Amino acid sequence: MFRLFLLQRSGHRALDRVFSPFVPLLAALLLSGCGSLGYYGQLAEGQWQLLRARQPVEHMLADPATDERLRQRLLHAEQARTFASEHLKLPDNRSYRVYADLGRPYVVWNVFATPELSLQPVTHCFPIAGCVAYRGYYRQGAARGAAALMREEGLDVYVGGVEAYSTLGWFDDPILSSMVGWGEERLATLIFHELAHQRFYVKDDTEFNESFATFVEQEGTRQWRMARGLAAAHEDGARQREQFIRLVLASRERLQAIYAGTLADADKRVAKQAEFARLRREYRELRDRDWAGDRRYDAWVYGPMSNAKLLPFGLYDQWVPAFAALFREAGGDWSMFYQRVEHLGQQPIDQRKAALQRLMAQP
Q: Could you tell me which residues are beta bridge partners of residue 159?
């Protein structure tokens, strides 16, 4: 669910091929901005190891030693990748036409943090990527260590594993071994989502970027299914996800009201824990009443709860209906849609959000 982003720069793919020995330094420069040299170093080392592990998909498919299950996943990804460029007008480059075996379940672990009595994220700003609400680590132990130090400072902290991320065109992003266990459709949707980030990215506006990419993912998947003559996707999973997100967002709004209120801090802490208990109770009621006991979100709900754990919710969905309205205004023409998205993204943030609100109000 969580991703690490760098700024799009399509012409820099040449650096990926020609100046690869300098990738660690380049990655450190791209990602630096605040924090220790040790943090920059692990970013550079992790990205460099990922680049070294890549192999062209066509070579994997031609190799008789390639596992058959992996071969089928790569074939499907290749078809989805072609569809993305030819039909969805997404960047036609080497991203997701290479493969890398990570040897671990996640490519990075992101650390989210908030103050104890606030839902405002602790942000980390980079000169090119802008400010984001997390820090990424290529080693789980490093992420946990960073999280422990933040907890000692009195912050609420959450660590989430990331199965894939986009470098927004700086490098040829690979299909990762962490993605191979996914179903075929989920693999395709990831490709659509990440290529949308390469297509357009607004610095310092996570909600805009993620909602845009999520719309491209959803509409692209719908068209991908139609192109293959498949029926509409089964709605139960999507409905449950939507209900779950609404449940968490409602809890977040109530917490916002608690933190902004006049209670003493000690009383706010009590109210905070009561709200987490309410979230778990309402989830259990929804699960048992409407989902026939489906427990897909149990691990998340019954795990340790914090403000930071709630941060990612809403980032990926907030403006999706607005982008859907913009797509309708463009007559379903992808090129025209992207032009309008770019125009929107170039506006000052207050004007941009006002325009998105107007689009949200459309029937």
A: 111
